[in-house]
Amino acid sequence: MTDPLVHAPTLTLIQQAALGSGASFWTTEAVGDVPSILLTDGPHGVRRQSGASDHLGIGGSEPATCFPPAVALSQTWDPDLVERVGAALGAESRALGVHVLLGPGVNIKRDPRCGRNFEYFSEDPLLSGVLGASWVRGVQSRGVGASLKHFAANNSEHDRMRASSDVDDRTLREIYLRAFEHVVREAAPWTVMCSYNRINGVYSSENAWLLTEVLRDEWGFDGVVVSDWGAVRDRVAAVAAGLDLEMPSSGGFGDAEVVAAVTAGALEADAVATAAERIARLALRAQENHHTTDTFDMSDLVDTHHRLAREVAGQAVVLLKNDLRDGAPILPLAPSRLAVIGPFAPAPRYQGGGSSHVNPTRLDVPLDEILARNAGHQVTHFQGVPTDPDDDANALRAAAVRGAAEAETAVLFLGLTPEEESEGYDREHIDLPPTQLALLRAVVEVQPRTVVVLSHGGVVRLDTVAQLAPAILDGALLGQAGGGAIADVLFGAVNPSGRLAETVPARLEDCPAYLNFPSENGHTVYGERIFTGYRWYDARDLDVTFPFGHGLSYTAFAYSDLDVDAGPAGLTVRLAVSNVGSRSGREVVQVYASKPNSQVGRPPRWLVGFAGLTLDGGERRSVEIPVRRADLAFWSVGGGQWVVEAGDYTVSVGASSRDLRLQATVTVTGDAPRTVFTRESTLGEILADPAAAPLLFETLGPAAQNAPAMGTDMLRMLESVPIERMIALSGGRVSPERLDDLLAALNAVRP
Ligand code: BGC
Where is the Fibronectin type III-like domain (predicted)? Predict the structure, then answer.
């Protein structure tokens, strides 16, 4: 960033306060030589409103490419592709005069009912962080700022502007802050958007620990913290905590409160000046970038971006199931007599509702695209299910079933309507509408070659669909070119390579947050702690319908020659992957780590790396996947720091979290403990330290050895005793002075 003039001292307090809130719904104030800038949603397209403004997706906006929303983008597991989408979004922002695009959303999908899951990447923090960083790099490569949101622990919509996410420190760090940390450290977004909710009782917008200690002091964020639209309740408290920009305009009320608080000595003048300075830098940087020689014109972008949207959508489709019929897999389809069933075939569901709603430049209709690919053969469409209350469900189903029976193959579109899931509210269940399941049941009875195509923003329960349908394509929400992409995959022009970024549970009741969702009395208890998504299903050994990372291909891959090395930066995982089929295809190799005998509770495995590689039929290639040391660490609550435990780690590689093909063990050097033993340290904690244990054993003497005589394992009994209790329990042999000498000696023998 070029260092602009130091503005704050040259501006009056009133001007500084004015810079700290919007001039309108989407713009900041112009003050002195600091220009006004325009912020706009995001994330999967540019929602540039020129008429009435709103953050609910109600009013219109300029046409812009509607790329696949994050729910589908994440299914590509392809950081390079996501970066290209980011760059395209940046170019359209420039063309539409937008300085900051409000995205990406990297909140963790804690529960499938969250109405906004379609805007988020994954249940896994590494996947969310890596893809979020790519998105930011892409957007910012075009001189447009990103806004990383919603910071933080905003994982449900219910009561979203008040509820407190009650989360323990370790869970926050390892799950809910981790993707944000990754993006901030790796991609330096120009802005971060604080969320509506409270965290452990404190509003994000007033949370000094979150906005200053963690975000700036620890992670080194040097951009602007902007509020979510309407998230500021007390502007003075927010500025004191580290919030720079309140959006949208508060009509001058907040500015006046800031001025009054500084005048009364209740708010540091420096805090206001610093916030103003950051906003001035952002505005000047944004303006400067818009004045570079590159110009972007929407009319030049529409075609190429529609093609990119189709490419991405094609990579995002997940082939969940593909059974054999007459000795060959059902998919891909050869042109034949088709019955295409369901309202989403002529009227696709391709994005979610609310602030991210994009006005697409064009729209691919799946039915038309199927017709084009199936040229020369008959395609008949049937609605199959009612779309309004006057429809006769039985008649619609009967017609579709007749059509399916007469066709060679049925392609059945199932999914959720826009009303069933949206920003602003959560779902109460994860079921597909019963009329759709009844239709599926009836169709598969008459047509053994039935392909289901799914459209939905949040995960839907699929056990019945998986039992009944011999082939399933999961499109989630594919954006404006999804119709073409579905046809590409159905007919094999694209070999599917998407992978689930979220587990499909067998039942809602199995979900980690089932009993703690949504909030109650203003509190959401994150009782499942670090066990989100597959971490939970694996730890509880629960059956799932489709596991995290799952996705089939029209070819098959074999894994061999796993080799894992540990070095100072982390691990290097090497293996060979072979395409053992005849078609070219892309495999996503996933790397999971486990830590047997960990000193803290750990999930059975967690994702530490992944890589995609495209191989021709019969081709074999080696791949090297780096695993960052940071991704092996756990958050030590006592030490307030990340710790990599010493010892053996198991590294597994495979095609999903439950399709692990190879495994190796690697020994990792641990972090030197930075905690010191205190009087409150237990004997067990001290004995777990290889350097201190011998000295303590020596001191404990017979107490540690006469276990058999006592009919118990004396050492295990003693483990939970704080060392200071030796004063009370040693019958006068250990004095306070002797204890402190012992503690000093125990700390001194550690490296
Ligand atoms: C949403 C944000 C969005 C903002 C502006 C809010 O309601 O939570 O994601 O960027 O509105 O539309």
Answer: 587-657
Does 562 lie in the same domain as 422?
no
Please check whether residue 484 lies inside any domain of the structure: yes
Testing ligand 1's pocket by substitution, the residue of 46, 161, 355 carrying the most ligand atoms inside 8 A of its CB is 355
Same-domain pairing of 367 and 232: no
Atom of ligand 1 nearest to the CA of 195: 8
Q: Please enumerate in sequence order all residues whose Cβ is within 8 A of that of 398, keeping only pairs 6 or more positions apart, or say none.
A: none
Q: Nearest C-alpha to atom 2 of ligand 1 is from which residue? A: 228
Structure tokens at 536: 């939970």
Q: What is the pLDDT of residue 648?
A: 98
Cα–Cα distance between 488 and 501 in angstroms, integer? 22
In a domain, 2, yes or no: no
Residue that terminates a domain, selected from 633, 668, 703: 668
**Which sequence positions are flagged as catalytic?**
228
Number of folded domains that form the chain:
4
For 209, residues 6+ apart whose C-beta sits below 8 A from its C-beta are 202
Which mutation among 26, 48, 102, 232 tests ligand 1's pocket best, with the greatest number of atoms within 8 A of CB?
A: 102
**Average pLDDT over every residue of 436-445:** 98
Statement: residue 63 has pLDDT above 80? yes
- CATH number for 630: 2.60.40.10
Whether residue 393 is predicted with pLDDT greater than 60 in this model: the reply is yes
Measure the CA–CA gap between 154 and 551, rounded to whole angstroms.
28
655 lies in the same domain as 689: no
To the nearest 5 percent, what fractions of the chain are helix, strand and coil? Answer: 35, 20, 45
Domain that holds residue 283: 13-50+60-292
Say yes or no: 350 and 437 in one domain: yes
Report how far residue 298's alpha carbon sits from residue 598's, in angstroms, rounded to the nearest whole number. Answer: 54
Phi, psi of 565 (to 5 degrees): -120, 145
- Residue 486 alpha carbon to ligand 1 centre in Å: 30
* Residues 100 and 248 both lie in one domain: yes
- Omega of the bond prior to 42 within 30 degrees of 0, cis? yes
User: For all residues of the chain together, what is the average pLDDT?
Assistant: 95
CATH assignment of the domain containing 156: 3.20.20.300
CA nearest ligand 1 atom 6, residue:
229
* 704 vs 683: which has the higher pLDDT: 683
Name the residue at shortest CA distance from atom 3 of ligand 1: 355
Average pLDDT over residues 35-51: 94
Within-domain flag for 549: no
Read off the pLDDT of residues 257-266 as tens digits, 9 standing for 90 and up: 999 999 999 9
Residue to probe by mutation, ligand 1, list 228, 249, 423, most atoms within 8 Å of CB: 228
Whether residue 247 lies inside any domain: the answer is: yes
Report the atom number in ligand 1 closest to the C-alpha of 150. Answer: 9
- pLDDT tens digit string along 219-252? 999 999 999 999 999 999 999 999 999 999 989 9
**How close is the Cα of 704 to the center of ligand 1, in Å?**
61
- Ligand 1 site residues (CB inside 6 A) read 41-42, 55, 102, 149, 228-229, 355
pLDDT band at 690 (very low <50, low <70, confident <90, very high): confident
Residue 599 CA to ligand 1 centre (angstroms): 41
Peptide bond into 366 cis (omega under 30): no
* pLDDT of amino acid 55: 76
Å from CA of 294 to ligand 1 middle: 29
Distance 636 CA to ligand 1 centre (A): 34
Residues 340 and 455: beta-carbon distance below 8 Å: no
Residue 704 has what pLDDT?
63
Tokens at residue 291, please? 């004045």
123 & 260 share domain: yes
Same domain, 270 and 392: no
pLDDT, tens digit (0-9, with 9 covering 90-100), for 614-636 = 999 999 999 999 999 999 999 99
**What are the tens digits of pLDDT across the range 543-590?**
999 999 999 999 999 999 999 999 999 999 999 999 999 999 999 999
